[in-house]
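Please check this chain.
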Amino acid sequence: MAGKIYDTALMALDGLLFDGMTIMSGGFGLCGIPENLIAALRDSGVKNLTVISNNAGVDGFGLGQLLTTRQISTMVASYVGENKEFERQYLAKELVLEFTPQGTLAERIRAGGAGIPAFYTATGVGTLIAEGKEHKDFAGRSYVMETGLVADLAIIKAWKADTEGNLVYNKTARNFNQVMAAAGKVTVAEVEEIVPPGSFDPDHVHTPGIYVQRMIKGAVYEKRIEQRTTRVRETA
């Protein structure tokens, strides 16, 4: 370990995990997910987790591993369509699921990171999503109140970091990672490359190092394709 940099994912999570905790996990589908940190969570045996993530990976990979090992008791997510075990556990009432519209989920996380406890949105008004929630009218239109989200731990994936924890994401892999970095009480980042301070333009920093307490250089990345679609090559 040197400063914020830890040698392995398990070492980076040491002392942070406890049963019943809330964890935010970055990524969208399989893009920009913290593969090594998720595997370390699996190996740690921590259980009864509430996990906040756009989705739960696929069967046997990403957060899907934690469903297989039954370490997740509650999911806060916007999409579940690529994971059969997720679907099975939900329909069998073995897993609590809080469905949240994708844009609302992103804003709830951003609000939590900004210290905003709640906000109003028109999304979901008149649907099951809004049942039991406070409503208020503004300028003749009804809005539903949504609460900000914070987590005991945020695990995120970035492309590059300097040794101070300043992060740069690779294109769309920024997705939920950036807002989650600010919404975790502790944030652990895994990155593909660690460089000295000053190696990239300060204007290109997506997440300032003040939000990152620990980080690792990921050991292995599979970078799977969520849905491989091909067609027969046309012959001349």
